[in-house]
């Protein structure tokens, strides 16, 4: 396997720019303009409904957890609260960063700020980070959000089921920014005029965490931290479980989302937590379609996409053998078959990458 430098300031980043992989023109399934216009219509109602359900559930679960705090009966309520705090907020952060969850802009902004705090992702820097992820999806040296690198850091991925590295990195960067500094990699994708906002948000967050820790010390109990902070750790497993599926084991350095993204059918509870991001090829191809219309978008374009995985279990049965081979430094990935109704992959453009594909 050729060595890959995932740094945004390294040789692979320069190579991506020089070869035209950076900010390239991506493949999109043809869809009638009127139909796409309909799919892109935003609405407040679905997201208001889901947000009320989310916060009502969090308040209820935390309330029961506090009431039963002295007993192990509180554990399942804290675990459920943690999944909503440490995983459902990941998808809310994501969708609101696109500005498509609600029709009303400030509703998107409010939920984005709350979800960013829960996930310890600075809402200014991560908005620009995620824009880069969509512009240069799984382009080595350009995409700052690649989870399964080559060879894959399986230990890091496994430990992140408890949020260890992600949360630690988030808190570390929060303190770094709060000290008045912008990391050089952040400066690569955050416009200079936005950088003071990064510092201001980090300082507000430090104040909130300081107040929470002070309350915990005054009470002689970790209970305040069970509500704010710790759920980012014990509730992270679901967003890692679903997030790894998005791109792991698929191609890098290609400009066709059918080669580097994965759609998976999942159960209704996980779809609520994940806010339909299991339709991930569709989301990357048309990121301005709101989450609640992604099933309709899937139905409209699935004739041009690889068959969706039928479950998370089936997806991981596909992913893990590829990751094991990559761990052994084999330069392989899964090239998924297209249906007869689909337009073919651009073999000429992606010849170098497709030549290494695992069949």
TrEMBL record:
The chain crosses the membrane at residues 51-72, 204-228. GO terms for molecular function: oxidoreductase activity, acting on paired donors, with oxidation of a pair of donors resulting in the reduction of molecular oxygen to two molecules of water. Residues 70-315 form the Fatty acid desaturase domain. One of its GO terms (cellular component) is membrane. The keyword Mitochondrion does not apply. It holds the Pfam family FA_desaturase. Keywords: Membrane, Transmembrane, Transmembrane helix. It comes from the Bacteria. GO terms for biological process: lipid biosynthetic process. PANTHER family: DELTA(5) FATTY ACID DESATURASE C-RELATED, FATTY ACID DESATURASE 2. This is Fatty acid desaturase family protein. It comes from Marivita cryptomonadis. The lineage of its organism: Bacteria, Pseudomonadati, Pseudomonadota, Alphaproteobacteria, Rhodobacterales.
């Amino acid at each position: 396997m050729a060595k890959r430098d995932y740094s945004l300031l390294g040789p692979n980043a320069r190579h991506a720019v020089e070869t035209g992989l950076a900010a390239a023109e991506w493949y999109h399934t043809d869809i009638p303009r009127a139909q796409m216009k309909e799919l892109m219509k935003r609405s407040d109602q679905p997201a208001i409904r889901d947000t009320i359900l989310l916060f009502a559930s969090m308040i209820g679960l935390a309330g029961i957890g506090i009431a039963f705090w002295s007993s192990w009966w509180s554990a399942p309520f804290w675990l459920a609260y943690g999944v909503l705090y440490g995983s459902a907020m990941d998808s809310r952060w994501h969708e609101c960063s696109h500005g498509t969850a609600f029709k009303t802009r400030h509703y998107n902004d409010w939920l984005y700020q709350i979800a960013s705090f829960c996930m310890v992702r600075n809402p200014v820097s991560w908005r620009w980070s995620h824009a880069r992820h969509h512009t240069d999806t799984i382009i080595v040296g350009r995409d700052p959000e690649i989870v399964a690198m080559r060879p894959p850091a399986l230990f890091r991925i496994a430990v992140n089921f408890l949020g260890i590295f992600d949360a630690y990195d988030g808190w570390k960067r929060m303190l770094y920014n709060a000290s008045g500094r912008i990391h050089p990699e952040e400066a690569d994708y955050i416009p200079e005029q936005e950088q003071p906002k990064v510092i201001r948000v980090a300082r507000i967050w430090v104040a909130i965490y300081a107040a929470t820790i002070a309350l915990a010390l005054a009470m002689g109990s970790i209970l305040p931290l069970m509500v704010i902070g710790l759920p980012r750790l014990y509730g992270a497993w679901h967003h890692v479980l679903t997030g790894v599926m998005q791109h792991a084991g698929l191609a890098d350095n290609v400009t066709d989302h059918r080669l580097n993204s994965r759609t998976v059918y999942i159960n209704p509870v996980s779809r609520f937590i994940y806010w339909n991001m299991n339709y991930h090829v569709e989301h990357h191809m048309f990121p301005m379609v709101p989450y609640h219309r992604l099933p309709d978008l899937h139905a409209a374009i699935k004739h041009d996409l690889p068959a969706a995985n039928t479950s998370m279990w089936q997806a991981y049965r596909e992913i893990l053998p590829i990751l094991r081979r990559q761990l052994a430094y084999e330069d392989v990935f899964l090239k998924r078959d297209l249906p007869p109704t689909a337009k073919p992959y651009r073999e000429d453009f992606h010849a170098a990458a497709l030549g290494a594909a695992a069949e």
